[in-house]
Amino acid sequence: MTTRTPIRTTPIPAVLVPGLCLLMAASAEAIDTSHFPIPLPEVKSSETAARPAKQMAVPDDAGRPGFAAKTANRFAGSVGRTQPASEQLIVGVERRLEAIRQAKLLGLDRNPAARHLGSTDAVFGFERLESSNPDLQIRWHEDTGVPRFISGTNLLPMTATPFAPEDAAAAFLRDQKALLRIDDPSAEFEQTEKIESEDGFQAVRLQQVHEGIPVWARDVVVRLDRSGRVSGFSGTHLPSASFPDATPAVSEGAAAQTARESMSDRYGTAAVSETPELMYFLPIAGNPEAESTQKEPRLAWRVRTRGNAHQVDDVFVDAMTGAILHSSTRVCMTGPATGSGRDLAGVTRSLELWESNGTNFMVNTTKDMFDLNGSQMPDNPKGGILIANANHAENTQELFHVTSNNLNSWTGSENAVSSSFYAGQVYDYFKQRHSRTSIDGNGGAMILVVNFGTNFANAFWSAPIMHFGNGDGQDFSDLAGSLDVTAHEMSHGVTEHTANLVYEFQSGALNEHFSDAFGVATDFFANGNGANWLLGEEVTTPNIAGDCLRNMIDPGASNVAFGGQPRHMNEYRNLTIQQDNGGVHINSGIPNRAFYFATVDQGLGIEATEKIWYRALTQYLNRSSQFVDFRLATIQAAVDLYGAAAGNSVAAAMDAVGITDGEPTDPGGDLPDNTGADYLSFIDASTGNVIRVDLPNGSSFEQITGVSIAASGRPSFADDGSIFAWVAADQNIYVSASNGSGTQQLSDTGDWNSVAINAEGTILAATTVYADGMIYLFDLGTGNGQAVELQSQNSSDGDIPSNIVAADVMEFAAGGDYLIYDTLNRSEFGGTELEFWDINLLRLTDGTFFRVFPSLPAGESVGNPTLGQNHDNLMAFDYVDTEPNVYVLAVDFETGDVGQLTNNFDSLGRPTFAGDDGAVYYQYDDGSSQRQIWYVELEAGGLNGDPKTDTAVLNGALNPVFFTIGTRPTPILLSALEGDWFGDQVVLEWEVPDVASHVGFEVERVIESGSPELRTPDPISSRDGQDGRFQFVDEAPVAASRAEYRIIGVKSDGHTEELGRLELTPGRSGSIGESLALLPAYPNPFAGSVQLRFTVPSDTGLPTSVTIHDVQGRVVARPVAAEQLASGVHQVEWDGRTEDGRPASAGVFFVRLSQGGMEQTQRVTLLR
Amino acid sequence: MPWIRLSLLVAVLVSGLSCAGSGVPKDFKVVFGEGGGVTGQWRGHTIAADGQVETWAGASAEVNPKPAGKLSDKSRSAIWDELEKSGYFEIERNEPGNMTRFIRVTANEETHEVTWPAGGSDDTLEGLLAFCREQVKNQ
Q: Which top-level group of life is the source organism from (chain B) (predicted)?
């Protein structure tokens, strides 16, 4: 370690000027602390859960194609069968019994129980039961008058020797034969089973027979307790008198033939039968057939008939008439089945179905993702592919199964056949090519709905369902008839579960692109050489051959129905949110073509390209990724998968469509200089208090904190320097005016580590002392808070996963919604735990994280980031190598250049930019004797520190933070815009104050009130101007009385923004400097902030104001408060807040631009 | 005196000539439709303040408008009543989806727009859209 000697020989006192050590009660600028102390908020929930699958109802409309009313009845009848009459039955019997008891007590001869007690013997039998069983319960079959349930303690009088269970059962039946209405129980019941349970209870089951012929489905059970006493009876037998003659009139052969034919008709398959068995048959209760037809048992042949493994029926053929009395499914016929059906193209497709009791449902359960245990078939097949019918409704609140009672007949459901078949192919594509199990990657069910709407000429994804319309017959035929449309829609689901690209502007165009790309890729997977690079050609304009929805080879080709797409970034359409969500279906043509170029022109082949694209989507891209992020992601994915050559191929494909290299992030460009008073704050090393000293004189030292600061509690200042926040030694958060007055304590939990405040002083970021991997964001206006869980970054040396322990130093970008921060990470490498620091960027608008330095060699760290005062693209930070030695470095995000400011040996520098970012203050702390702040200037035109300027400036001071008290001027976009329209030419000239702010310019023209036309097929490069001045000559519009020209600036990331517009008439010149005018606000309506653009005429010397008024005319905000502005086009942002920093209520507001006595007003709408 | 009476009579007549459904703002205009999906096409209707109906279809909403008849005052009034009754003006929703539906109403110099994803379960908005479509269809 080298001892550093300060240049100044006179020590600079780092103590407070006496008198200022006390806090001052009055505050120069009050902060609303009515919500403080702020409790730690709960982490907000993430995406809402997918809606549960709809309940399916089998329609009972017999007219539905391929569906029989009988099947419906069977299905309906098997669900939730209850006996609502049983309650009443029980009550009725109890009343009758009570009546009997009453009658007995009263000695009445007439016995009310005769209704069920069919004989005197039955009465006596009943009386025996009653007298021996005070707790007797007895229930009856109303239709037959026999007991269905008897329970007591001793239903059979005991003899000295206990009966064996079967003997006791037989004895009971004999004893109560009258009650049971059985003539000869010994002959009419045959024991079939004896049951002994572990607790000592026993039961005997007996089958009813009549004249030796079994009675179908009629048996009884006699129960015995542990002592062997008969304690219960239950049965469904029929009275002996019910049965007809036992001599059949129909031969068993004829019966078998009848049964087989019946089975074949039902299932469409040949049937075989076993030897018929003579039985008595009466339909069981609850069967609607029983109630309407057969009331008495009939002699029947039971023919066990088999179609296939799933089709085994017992067919009952009337032994007297030969008619079929009943078919009873022998096998629990529920399970997968294979059938076939014609699809929309007339092709017969193999279908994987689900069969349940004779009904075939279009539910494919054959994929390995299917989970029977987790399913409720057929409505909720976990891991199944389910096709449902919306029945032309415009919603999916009621969906119907697609069913048939014939495996191979699906007439009228051709679109469902197509859907089912194609869905299986898409599943296979993602599974085999990308090892992805279903849309969500976790084997979630795939649900496709056909017949959505009436003449609905579209298909769409709305989680978790894909919807297909039938088309209108003109623009589209049934959209289920296209494999790539099916794959396209399913891919939206994949995107939703991965990068979840926001469906607007460029991210939305990427969302659409990935669906197109995987749509085409699925086509190649399924059809090989039979595939093509067209989307939806099977269903687009059915009356026009050769048309398609999109063309990946040439997005602007003439066979693209409904207008072509841009092919190149120079055709990029800058659309509003109201126009196709910013052109998501339009600008997707550009990445579509890149996909084709990568595959074919660059020779990567479809399989490699799709893998690269899939990796990019699932592992690299983020919600609001732009085209440039897409380029970076696909190139990196190609390198990761296939090496540098593949990366170059993808880069060439991107170049070919104009998606050029650029920074993945654009925290902001140059900011207007804040010309207020400069200060440097630092920590007094001896007291821990924060001191500020005026710059450049260094003549005034003021203590601005009354309590000592925490070691990590670096103060953070708002951009105008008016307030600052810090964490004190008590680990609580404080805010104060920058002169130290009005200090407010914001927390009392005592567990905060560090804070940062944004440029406007409205948002506070904070970290805790815990290893929670979180940053907490607080809205100082509302008190609302949010916890942001930081994403893990790859550790040093490749893809070793790491855990984020905690964040520490944070700083908001002054010019944009970014927060830069460092994090302590922990990972394991070769059995050794490694810790390292890393620097990341959080985009606050959408929560996207960015790694600033993608990879660090093991043992190295970066941290303590700070952004430029006027240049958000500049960052200074500490870099620690493996020795360890610390260097203070600087990086330019726009160029990627890195420079060394100074070698700080063994001390962290904690740098801060100063002035116009031409210099940096940093600390040197050896932990004991030397604690100093040093100053170094950057070499001209570079990022390296000039050693000649590297100077110690303060002793006993640490943690410098530069700030300025003052405001930045309103930015100007165009300093001039002029045009001449003479003859057949229009000449435009414009001047921009900062050429570097755009890489190029485009010119649009609107003739009369028509649509904007792009007049510059290739953007004008920013390098083509002279001293910031540019010219464009246009062919004048013919026969037009006026034309409006718009100058569009193109940013380095592909974003475009309107800089100004000028209306011209023939034979006239025009200039934006001629009038005070409001340009259209954008976006409008808006949800967060709105860009207000306006022109100021040639220097009038009058102040300009832009104020926001509510509908009552009250001023709610002043984006520009009576400023002297140069002529030209200006832009200012209103963040939707009132003057006191609170969010304004949703509604209509009026933007008023005024200068002197002139005013212009424009309406904007704020959405919440 | 007769002069005064005549004036009064005229005033009464004029007031009596106000349109049926006088609660409907004079500048009441409705634009409704849907678009997106796999095709990217948008389709819908515009009902102007004077009842003229346009149908449109194209790459974004309201492009390629074509005349499609005129709505009666009664139907306009019915739509207005339905919007008010349903609480439409209190609905704050700007939620585009893969397939987006929207209803935009201009009345009393204010514009209120609601967008929501098709395939959802918002009965109110779906019902309103269906109602508007029905009025246009039945004109």
A: Bacteria
Beta-bridge partner residues of A767: A754
A561 falls in which pLDDT band (50, 70, 90)? confident
Confidence of residue A273 (pLDDT cuts 50, 70, 90): confident
Chain B's closest residue to A461, CA to CA, is B98
Catalytic, A585? Answer yes
Q: Which residue of B has its CA nearest to A466?
A: B119
Contact A476 B39 (CB under 8 A): yes
> Is there a single domain that holds both residue A599 and residue A743?
no
pLDDT for position A332: 55
Please give the residue of chain B at the shortest CA–CA distance from A1085: B113
Determine whether A492 is an active site residue: no
Comparing CA positions, the residue from A723, A818, A722 lying closest to residue A775 is A818
Nearest CA-CA partner of A704 in A733, A735, A678, A669: A735
Q: Which domain holds residue A1119?
A: 1075-1168
Asked if A766 contacts A778 with a C-beta cutoff of 8 angstroms, the reply is yes
Asked if residue A646 and residue A507 are part of one domain, the reply reads yes
Sheet with A898-905: list strands edge to edge: A861-867, A874-880, A886-892, A898-905
| B113 neighbourhood in chain A, CB within 8 Å | 1085
Identify the band that residue A101 occupies on the pLDDT scale cut at 50, 70 and 90.
Answer: very low
- Between CA A646 and CA A623 the distance in angstroms is 25
Share of chain A above pLDDT 90, in %: 37
Q: How far is residue B104's CA from residue B101's CA, in Å, rounded to a whole number?
A: 10
Q: Please indicate, yes or no, whether residues A607 and A754 belong to a single structural domain of this protein.
A: no
Q: Is residue A268 part of a domain?
A: yes
Query: Residue B99 and residue A458: Cβ atoms within 8 Å?
Result: yes
Mean pLDDT of A798-804: 60
Give the integer Cα–Cα distance in Å for A48 and A56. Answer: 23
Interface of B with A (CB under 8 A): 35-43, 58-61, 92, 94, 96-100, 110-111, 113, 117-121, 126, 130
Q: How far is B76 from chain A (nearest CA, A)?
A: 23
Same domain, A602 and A473: no
Q: Do A549 and B59 touch (CB under 8 A)?
A: no
- A100 pLDDT more than 50: no
End of a domain among A908, A938, A963?
A963
Tell me the sheet residues that pair with A978. Answer: A989, A1071
Phi-psi group of B57: left, alpha or beta (phi > 0 → left; psi -120 to 50 → alpha; rest → beta):
beta
Question: Mean per-residue pLDDT for A467-477?
Answer: 94
**Cβ within 8 Å, pair B99-A460:** yes
Express each pLDDT in A399-420 by its tens digit: 999 999 888 999 999 999 999 9
Sort out which chain B residues have CB atoms less than 8 A from A475's CB and list them: 39, 41
- In chain B, the number of structural domains is 1
**Nearest by Cα to A60 from A75, A42, A45:** A75
Q: For A75-97, what is each residue's pLDDT tens digit?
A: 222 222 222 233 333 333 344 44
The predicted pLDDT at position A679 comes to: 94
Q: In this model, does residue A284 exceed pLDDT 90?
A: no
Confidence label for A1069 from pLDDT (cuts 50, 70 and 90): confident
* Helical (H) or strand (E) element with A1164: strand A1158-1166
3-state per-residue secondary structure call for A1011-1035: CCEECCCCCEEHHHCECCEEEEEEE
Same domain for A884 and A797?
yes
Q: A1097 vs A1104, A1129, A1130, A1155, A1156, CA distance in Å?
A: 10, 9, 11, 10, 12
Is A31 among the domain residues?
A: no
Domain with B79 in it: what CATH number? 3.30.1560.10
Provide the whole-model pTM.
0.45
Q: Does residue B97 lie in a domain region? A: yes
Contact A775, A810 (CB under 8 A): yes
**A1086 contacts: CB under 8 Å, gap ≥ 6:** A1136, A1164, A1165, A1166, A1167
Q: From A662, A693, A713, give the residue that closes a domain.
A: A662
